[in-house]
Structure formats: structure tokens, C-alpha cells
Write a sequence for this structure.
């Protein structure tokens, strides 16, 4: 009987952890067909890092606004502000510092709330002008797109 008393706190901890896991948002991201064709040029590793950044941003927003929700997203387009390592490797002459372009991302999909309601989502942001390119990182405008998308989710605009 004493052994069972020992396991009771452990069972309570596991039950709380399971409930927290059930309330954690799930974010599924797939790559759209056009971006799929560009992945080799951009570099699989860098695109996968951007997918992880999108997942983290959306998971945080969902946790705040729609606990227990699931987001099923398609990353339609992804453009870097500066050349990726793979682009530099494939294209001699690209300058990782001075080569600048309009960057951003386009996302489409749905949020399924914990009660089963489906909310369509769609968002894209690309620098409107080469002079508006902000920051010095390769993916700054894509990150900006993910942040703005997360802000819209958190504000309940979907």
C-alpha cells in the first residue's frame, strides 16, 4: 500500500503534463509547389529553419489566443533579403553583404480551434521597395512576415 502512495504524486504530475500537452497548439507547415521548386536554389536547411521560425511564431500566438488550436499552414513563397549560403555557392559573384533584394513570405491555411471551428488564414508581406529593405540579415523580411502573421492571430483577426 505504501508503494502506491509514492506513485500518487508522480501520477498527478503526469496528468498535469498531459493536460498541458493537450492545450499546446500544433502548427503543421507544408511547402507549396512553387516554393518546393525553389528549395534547392535557396538551400533546404535554410528553408527548414524558416519553417521552424514560422511554427514557433504561430505556436506562440495560438497559445495566447486559441489554446489547444491546430494551425495547418502552407508556406507559399519565401524570399530572402540577401543571398543564402546555397545561392552564394551556386552563383559566383553574389556578394553576401552588398547583394540585397526584396524579401518576405506568403502563407495560407487554416486554424482549427479546440472546439473544432475552422478559420481560414492568409497573409503575405514582401518589402514594397528595395529602399524599404530593413535590417541586415538574410531572412529579415520573412521574419517580419511571420511576426505580423503571428500578431494578427494573437489579435483575433482570423
Amino acid at each position: 500500500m505504501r508503494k502506491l502512495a509514492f506513485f500518487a504524486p508522480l501520477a498527478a504530475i503526469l496528468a498535469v503534463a498531459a493536460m498541458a500537452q493537450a492545450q499546446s497548439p500544433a502548427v503543421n507547415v507544408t511547402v507549396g509547389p512553387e516554393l518546393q521548386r525553389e528549395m534547392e536554389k535557396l538551400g533546404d536547411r535554410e528553408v527548414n529553419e524558416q519553417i521552424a521560425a514560422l511554427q514557433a511564431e504561430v505556436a506562440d500566438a495560438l497559445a495566447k489566443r486559441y489554446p489547444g488550436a491546430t494551425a495547418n499552414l502552407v508556406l507559399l513563397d519565401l524570399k530572402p533579403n540577401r543571398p543564402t549560403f546555397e545561392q552564394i555557392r551556386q552563383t559566383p559573384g553574389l556578394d553576401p553583404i552588398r547583394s540585397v533584394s526584396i524579401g518576405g513570405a506568403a502563407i495560407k491555411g487554416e486554424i482549427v480551434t479546440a472546439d473544432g471551428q475552422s478559420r481560414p488564414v492568409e497573409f503575405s508581406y514582401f518589402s514594397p521597395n528595395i529602399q524599404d529593405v530593413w535590417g541586415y540579415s538574410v531572412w529579415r523580411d520573412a521574419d517580419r512576415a511571420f511576426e505580423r502573421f503571428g500578431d494578427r492571430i494573437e489579435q483575433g483577426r482570423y
In short: Helices lie at 2-23, 33-42, 44-65, 85-90, 140-154.
